[in-house]
Design a protein that fits this description.
Number of strands: 12
Radius of gyration: 32 Å
Oligomer: single chain
Strand content: 15-25%
CATH superfamily of the largest domain: Periplasmic binding protein-like II
Strand order of the largest sheet: 4-3-5-12-6
Distance between the termini: 61 Å
CATH topology of the largest domain: D-Maltodextrin-Binding Protein, domain 2
Shape: rod-shaped
């Protein structure tokens, strides 16, 4: 049976006539008559008794009308549930993030989302960029937050903001308080450089302009916070996104050294699988992270 035919039948039953039923259905009277005839053939039963002034339901017609009301009610209920689901922010969300986000931006954003929507259950994983892209393509995470990148097929890259890279050192470092850094300073004073295990051939994750400002590598780390702390302790120079070290700069634990040529801003991005529908919770988390990025970079 066609749902449209059932609605035409219901309108005739409720109005007591084919013409009035057709008006309620916004179709012609012959179209309604044809729909009722089709139902009668499919059911093998007469649905209406036609009198001189109106039509009346048969026993079969009354039974069908009762079932139609339940069907329509179920459909309306389903529509309401689907509409609510389309806007409901809740459930588990699996997130991959680089430490630029996970130190402060992502925790603040998630705290806001969970406070507003208590049924949200975030699961966050520290993942390097290439692995993050693969996890998205495999459907193992729903959203990633990273710097740089932007060339993998099947991945949607959404810019959330930009942050300035800064060469810094701690209070006990010999260059602390210096206004500018020179090329020979970079060769004399070692830097801490982020690299992931097994990726030593890749360009450093901090996007330092090695070609225009060669530096001496003194230590390699995977955790950004470890690199920041090594710089704060005065052991090494560090090159970090401003958003990750704002507090240490404000209270003087880190000092910014100017003079590095070729530096370009870090691009903060949200990554999702291209073509995959974004659940409301994913959209909400991205919106909140964007808000905290904006606050931290302006």
């Amino acid at each position: 049976m066609e749902l449209t035919d059932l609605r035409h039948f219901s309108n005739v039953a409720h109005t007591g006539g084919f013409t009035s039923g057709a008006r309620r259905s916004h179709v012609t009277t012959p179209a309604v008559s044809k729909a009722v005839q089709k139902l009668e053939l499919e059911l093998g039963a007469q649905l209406f008794v036609r009198t001189t002034r109106r039509v009346e339901l048969t026993d079969a017609g009354r039974e069908l009308l009762s079932r139609c009301e339940r069907i329509f009610a179920e459909l309306e209920g389903l529509q309401a549930v689907l509409e609510e689901s389309a806007h409901h922010v809740g459930g588990e969300i699996r997130i991959a993030a680089m430490e630029v986000f996970s130190i402060e931006l992502l925790p603040r954003a998630l705290a806001s989302v969970v406070t507003e929507h208590p049924t949200v259950r975030p699961s966050s994983y520290e993942v390097e960029p290439r692995r993050m892209e693969q996890l998205l393509l495999d459907g193992l995470v729903e959203v990633g937050f990273t710097i740089g990148g932007g060339a993998r097929d099947g991945i949607e890259y959404e810019e959330l903001g930009r942050t300035t890279p800064m060469l810094v050192c701690g209070r006990s470092h010999p260059l602390y308080g210096r206004s500018r850094v020179r090329r020979k300073d970079l060769a004399e004073h070692a830097s801490v450089v982020p690299r992931f295990l097994g990726r030593s051939s890749d360009a450093p994750l901090d996007q330092f302009p090695e070609a225009s400002a060669p530096r001496r590598v003194g230590a390699t780390i995977e955790l950004l916070q470890m690199g920041v702390q090594l710089a704060i302790e005065g052991a090494y120079l560090g090159y970090f996104p401003e958003v990750s070290i704002r507090r240490a700069l404000e209270d003087g634990r880190l000092w910014r050294l100017r003079g590095v040529r070729g530096a370009t801003p870090f691009v903060l991005r949200a990554l999702t699988r291209k073509g995959a529908p974004r659940r409301p919770v994913v959209r909400r988390v991205i919106e909140e992270v964007r808000l905290h990025v904006r606050r931290a970079t302006t």
